[in-house]
Every structure is written in C-alpha cells, then in structure tokens.
Model the fold of this input.
Amino acid sequence: MMPDSDMPQIKVNAVRASQLLSALESVQSRISTATSSASRQSAPRLVLVSKLKPASDILALHSHSPTTLLHFGENYSQELQQKAELLPRTIRWHMIGALQTNKCKPLAQEVQNLWCVSSVDSEKKANKLQEGRKLLAERLDGEGSPLTEKLRVQVQVNTSGEAEKSGVEPTDAAALCKYIRDKCPQLQLSGLMTIGAIARSKATGEGEENEDFIELVKTRDIVCEELGIERSELELGMGMSNDFEGAIKAGSNEVRIGSTIFGERGPKSEAKILDDNTDGAK
Ligand SMILES: *Cc1c(COP(=O)(O)O)cnc(C)c1O
Done:
C-alpha cells in the first residue's frame, strides 16, 4: 500500500461535485418516499456504484459527507484495488461484479477496507476470499492493528434463470450459505443478492411486483429455515437505477445505484481512474 504522502492529489471539480450531489439528493428522496410508502421502518443502505467512473467522482461524494457517504460499489476487482489505493481508507468498498476465482484471494488480501463482496456464487470463491482475508488478518495482527470485522459476503442468486447471469440457482443457495457459515471463519454471511432480468424490471409497471424480487424473498425464507436463522439476519441486496423503488417495496435492505447518480457509463476501454488534471497522474 502506498504511504499517504505518495498519493496523487485528486482534484475535485466543483461543478461536477454539485451535479453529483444534486443527483444523489434526488435519489435519496426517492428512496425515502419508497421507504415510507412501503411503511418500512428503515431505508435500505445505498451503495453508490462508481464503476468506470473516475476516483475524483468518488472523492467528491465521500469528502462531502465522510460519515454518511461511505458505501461505494465496483464491478472489476482490479479497478476496485486501484481506487482503494488512491482513496481514503474510510470508504467501505463493495465488490458487486462477477467474480473471477483467481481474483478473490488478492482482492481480500489487499483491500483492508473491503466491506462486502456481493457476488459469491461458489464454494471455491468463498474459500479464496477466506484465504485472502486470513492472510490480511495475520499481517495486520503482526503490525499491531488487528482487523475488527469479518469480511461480509452476500450469496448471489440467479433469480431470472438467464444462462449468462452469474449466481447460484435459488435451490442451491442454502447449501452455499451453510458452507460459508460453517467453513469460512473470516467471512460473515450477510445476505443474498440478485441482479434480475433487465427486461423484467422494465416490464414491471407501477403497482406490479418484479418476479426476481419475489424469488429472492422466497429464497431467503428457505435459507433461513434451513440454517435456523432469523430473516433479520440475512439481508436482501436488490434494486438498481431502473428498479430500486420496486425493490424497496419488496423488502430490499441494500440498493446499488450507479447511472442515476454518476450518469451513463462509457465503454470500459475509455474509463479512467485518474482524470487528466490530476497531479501525479500516470
Ligand atoms: C452496474 C451495476 C449496478 C448499478 O447499475 P445502474 O443501473 O447503473 O444503477 C448495480 N449492481 C450491479 C451488480 C451492477 O453491475
């Protein structure tokens, strides 16, 4: 990890910052409206999905309110690791994208402030995250600053049955959850996650329920029954820009919102972590 003095100075552009904040406020107000109209006690956690967006966008939001704008989600493990090196350690990173088995161990080992991995869909990946987190824990113990938390993981469920989507089949979720709970002491099983079919979230009209969300709720009931745990112990991570209000109505505890806040994303090949006006840009 870089010493703080070697970190490039990331500049926040004031115009961009105010754009981001106003988009965020509008999302937050839609979240509170959906939460109260569903008669729910508490709003879901909002994960700001910053994939393919520059580090300066993340810094603009996080530095505006370092105690409340904490949760940022990334899809690519290398991008997450690079951003984590450049940005304040107070950020709570979420890995939400399709995980490659060989990236699991380095991710868990390198990123101390990795808060949750939302896309676990095999025992192999759970094992690799476990190994990486264990090495991190040993290193930090040696440095006299022990880790105080386990690494949260969500099991990704393929609720839409689309072949190209990651995630376990709903009927296999309980076995993987049990494996994580019983065999991965450095991991904390925190919830279930689904992306769902885009076609369904677009087709679901006002007042209708999205089948993917219904399926995830059902899957949670089964998992809780099989593991003998309360529903409150297993969060539901569902809802994105297109469908978060429906997800909140269906009981989501965590929504992941990107383009509504950060704007449309360009192609991956054009994404830059550091803007050109950054001092020390590579
Ligand atoms: C990109 C992404 C999101 C956010 O999508 P938006 O439609 O931009 O809000 C949420 N979850 C996952 C897994 C993603 O890959």
